[in-house]
C-alpha cells in the first residue's frame, strides 16, 4: 500500500494522470521489447568473435532493460488489458476481448 501512495505522489508531482503514466509505461515496455528483438537479430547475424561479444553485451543489456520495465508494470498492477481497445497490436487479441467481458 505504501508503495502505491508513493507512486501516486510521484505522478502528481510530475503532473501526469494515472492514465498518462500507464500509457507511458506501456510505450517503454513496447520500445524495450523491440530493442530486445533487435538485439537477438544482431546476435544471430554476428560472425566475428568481436561482433559476437558485442552482440552478447547488447542482448544482455536489452534483456535487463525489458525485465526492469516489466517488473515496474507488475509492481503497479498493470496488465496489457488496461490498454485502450484502439491501441495498435492489441485490438484483435481474442483473450483480451474475453477478459474485458469477464471484468
Automatic annotation (TrEMBL):
InterPro entries linked to this entry: DUF2508
Pfam family membership, one: DUF2508
Region annotation Disordered: where it falls in the sequence: 1-20
Official protein name in the record: DUF2508 domain-containing protein
Amino acid at each position: 500500500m505504501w508503495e502505491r501512495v508513493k507512486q501516486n505522489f510521484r505522478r502528481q508531482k510530475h503532473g501526469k494522470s494515472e492514465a498518462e503514466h500507464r500509457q507511458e509505461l506501456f510505450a517503454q515496455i513496447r520500445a524495450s521489447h523491440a530493442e530486445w528483438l533487435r538485439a537477438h537479430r544482431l546476435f544471430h547475424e554476428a560472425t566475428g568473435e568481436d561482433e559476437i561479444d558485442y552482440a552478447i553485451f547488447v542482448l544482455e543489456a536489452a534483456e535487463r532493460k525489458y525485465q526492469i520495465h516489466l517488473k515496474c508494470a507488475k509492481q503497479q498492477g498493470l496488465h496489457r488489458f488496461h490498454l485502450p481497445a484502439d491501441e495498435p497490436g492489441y485490438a484483435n487479441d481474442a483473450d483480451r476481448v474475453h477478459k474485458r467481458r469477464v471484468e
